[in-house]
Amino acid sequence: MKILITGAKGQLGSQIINVLNKGTSDIGKIDSIYDKAEIFAFDVEDLDITNLNQCKTVIKEIKPNLIINCAAYTNVDSCEKEQDLAFKINSIGARNLAIVSEIIDSKLVHISTDYVFEGNGTSPYREYDITNPVSVYGKSKLLGESYVREFSSKYFILRTSWLYGFNGNNFVKTIIKAAKEKGQLKVVNDQRGNPTYAEDLVHHILAVAVTQEYGIYHCTGSGECSWYDFAKAIVKYSNINCTVDPITSENLDRAAKRPAYSALDNMMLRNTIGDNMRDWEEALKMFISHI
């Protein structure tokens, strides 16, 4: 089995490689089909997914059985300022991988986001709910989803949210650093979603990828909270002496609008391979214990 990973140096890509090398995640063992898998790890300096000809040349030579696309432009505020670049990476890049995966008859896993939803709901979004993104980031990711569905016949689109892992920057690391340095934090309390540990997401990516259960999935940590709740838990489980106070989004000067409510329901996981995503607090404790 050959697996090609884009965005391999990022938070999710590096975690996928780590789990593949170990043969297990915190949740449990991964399928034995991965035991002898050849991993082809690419980042932007090795493979420009926005260049269709380069994608064809590189990927057709390897002929992977599975492509996992972790490459994305994820800085939500910067996407508002660099709209063309956001669509180039998040939309055209996804399209190119879908086109080539179809040519070589490969499965394609594409990672998407809760930001494809408007965020005016009060109960977790399911896979069939109508999308209506309010930011350039969300719009570029939604167009990427559309291209994957249009050009690939063997795709898994996994929408996730509030992701954190060992590599790169994320909310958990930011809060820990700020809490130690400042001793007092102000965090928004009017945006709700699902914190997701990269290790748990990886386990489910690899579980679904060996099946033919193609389609769109939501894959987030179990349970929901606000960023304020999340920050308080991070400080608590890190045993840092720090006060966390709630504020509203209006107090922050941000270029991009965020969905006020973007919690996702892992309905399709439950109805196919099973939903073993851990409670967000349990997963957070595990992550903090590792770091």
TrEMBL record:
GO terms for molecular function: dTDP-4-dehydrorhamnose reductase activity. Coiled coil: none annotated. Keywords: NADP, Oxidoreductase. Pathway: Carbohydrate biosynthesis; dTDP-L-rhamnose biosynthesis. InterPro entries: dTDP_dehydrorham_reduct, RmlD-like-bd. The keyword NADP applies. It is an enzyme of class 1 (oxidoreductase). Its EC number is 1.1.1.133. Belongs to the dTDP-4-dehydrorhamnose reductase family. This is dTDP-4-dehydrorhamnose reductase. It comes from Clostridium algidicarnis.
